[in-house]
Amino acid sequence: MKRRLLLFFLILALAVVPVFTGCSQKTQPTVTPPGEGPQSFTLQFATFWPAVDFQVADGHKVWAKTISDRVAAETPHTINFEWHPQGSLLGPTEIFEGVAAGAADVGTTAPLYTMGMFPLTMGLELPGYNNDNALVASVTMHEAFKQSPELQKEYEDVKVMFFWATGPGDFMTNSPVRKMEDLSGLQIRAAGGSALAITALGGTPVSMPMSESYVALDSGIVDGILAPTDTLLGFKLGEVTKYITKTPFVGYNVVFVKVMNKDIWNSFPPSVQKIIEEVNEQFVIEYGKLRTDHTVIGQQHAVKEQGHQVFELDPVERARWMEKILPIPQKWVTDTNAKGLPAQKIYDLYKQLDAKYSGEHGNYGK
């Protein structure tokens, strides 16, 4: 009997050993790369978008969570974000310089809210591109930055995460715009290069951040806005407009950028930097798709829930508009070259990349 018990316990011990060995392998801590002691980072994130807007809920927070999850899983470090939406930490025109100075660690803004600081970036907002959708526009801008030392110089005070862009915009107004003459005398909220097109078509551009547009429309300071239709829902502009005139050819294409303070970036271990760079490349595409999807959603919401009317210009009227706006790119090139900047080189690069990515992504969302 004793021998049987001894044999039983011997067999049991031999059977259990591999199990315990396997468990010990699974619970081994992440191997710390040389020179990388475990660190924890908490970043202050500033943006002008409201917390409920898809840019924050489905864009910024998903980007941040992807980074946090990967850093926790692949390195001994942790990285977290504290959120300051709707200009609560820095206003729309303050975010870029605020991040550069360290008032926020990360920020997202439209470079052209601070006019004059990014003259070459403005070139993507001109007419003359396919500008099929936000995905094409986003990849075009991001790749142009990677290829152009001149564009990189405009952002040398910060670490650029990535760019994305709105793609085409439409006129959203409180009086119907069916022909060019209907724009005459209207005050239209503009951003960056879109002001040139509004002026050429007979309207009066009023420069202001998107976050101020609701009050401006509601109070009658402006009569309309040239912007993508996602703003009808995300910024609730469907509540203070009545009509949508489809004008993707006008050239509206506001660029956005996510930037990080350089000292913060340089404080990260190489393993964390590598993960962030990989996530950034992934999210250029994700943001482009997100914006394209929401332009459709925003217009549908305004039509179904708020009774907006949608106008399409007939071919003759569209040709009249095109005649007015096509000289704009060449004037921009001439004026910008006169300032000693390589405007033609940058415009040609934008056109080349726009054509390339229109072939790859132009049908997305259609």
What would you say about this model in short?
The chain is of the alpha/beta class and 366 residues long.
Instruction: Tell how many strands the DSSP assignment holds.
Output: 11
* Fraction of residues in β-strands: 15-25%
Give helix and strand order, one letter per element, not per position: HEHEHEHHEEEHEHEHEEHHEHHH
Mean pLDDT: 89
Structural class: alpha/beta
* CATH architecture type of the domain at 40-165 and 255-293: 3-Layer(aba) Sandwich
Q: For the terminal residues, how far apart are their CA atoms?
A: 80 Å
The CATH class of the domain at 40-165 and 255-293, by name, is Alpha Beta
CATH topology of the domain at 40-165 and 255-293: D-Maltodextrin-Binding Protein, domain 2
Largest sheet: 6 strands, mixed
Count of helical stretches: 13
Q: In what order do the strands lie side by side in the largest sheet?
A: 7-6-8-5-9-11
Shape type: globular
- Uncertain residue ranges: 1-30
Radius of gyration: 26 Å
Helix content: 40-55%
CATH superfamily of the domain at 40-165 and 255-293: Bacterial extracellular solute-binding protein, family 7
What report would you give on this structure?
- By secondary structure, this protein is an alpha/beta fold.
- It has 13 helices and eleven strands.
- It has a domain at 40-165 and 255-293: Bacterial extracellular solute-binding protein, family 7 (D-Maltodextrin-Binding Protein, domain 2).
- Strands 7-6-8-5-9-11 form a six-stranded mixed β-sheet, covered by helices on one side. It has a five-stranded mixed β-sheet with strand order 2-1-3-10-4, sandwiched between helices.
- β1 (40-47), α2 and β2 (78-84) form a beta-alpha-beta unit.
- The relative contact order is 0.16.
